[in-house]
Amino acid sequence: MRSRLRAHRFNSSGLCGRAELRSTQNLSLQVTQRPTCWARVARAKGANAEALAACRQAVLEAAEDVEDALMTLSQTAGNVSELNGEVDALQRARDLSQDDYQGGAIHSRMFSTRTVSC
To answer: What are phi and psi of 16, to 5 degrees?
Structure first.
């Protein structure tokens, strides 16, 4: 009695393919190959899940890096604005001092260095 049975087995590309078994003698081959096929599929699914998890982790870390960079940029912009304000104030003070000096309100001997002894 010959019966046609179909069994799953891995071909060279690692994917399950179909092979026809033409006799009952090959039934044991089918039974022993099927768990191997399922195990390979399970391993492949596990590897796929691990790769997906690693990809998600990389995306999360990249998003965190971008968030940190944006916060640093925002803080730096605030610092630059504050420093520009200080530079403007110092330039105004310099200009007022220059005007006072040229107007005669400040004499050059006020800026002479003196030695003070204790």
So the answer is: -70, 130
The 3-state DSSP class for residue 18 equals strand
33 close to 9: Cβ distance less than 8 angstroms: yes
Amino acid at 40: R
Of the candidates 5, 1, 3, 2, the one whose C-alpha atom is nearest the C-alpha of residue 29 is 5
Distances (CA, A) of 60 to 17, 30, 64, 68, 98: 37, 45, 6, 12, 57
Where do the structural domains in the chain lie, given as residue ranges? 5-98
Angle, CA of 46, 15 and 25, to the nearest 5°? 115
Tokens of 53: 């998890």
Structure tokens at 61: 């870390």
Instruction: Compute the distance between CA of residue 22 and CA of residue 4 in angstroms, rounded to an integer.
Output: 5
Residue with tokens 């420093």: 83
- 21 bridge partner residues: 5
The predicted-structure confidence for 8-60, as pLDDT tens digits, reads as follows 444 444 444 444 444 544 555 555 566 788 888 999 999 999 999 999 999 99
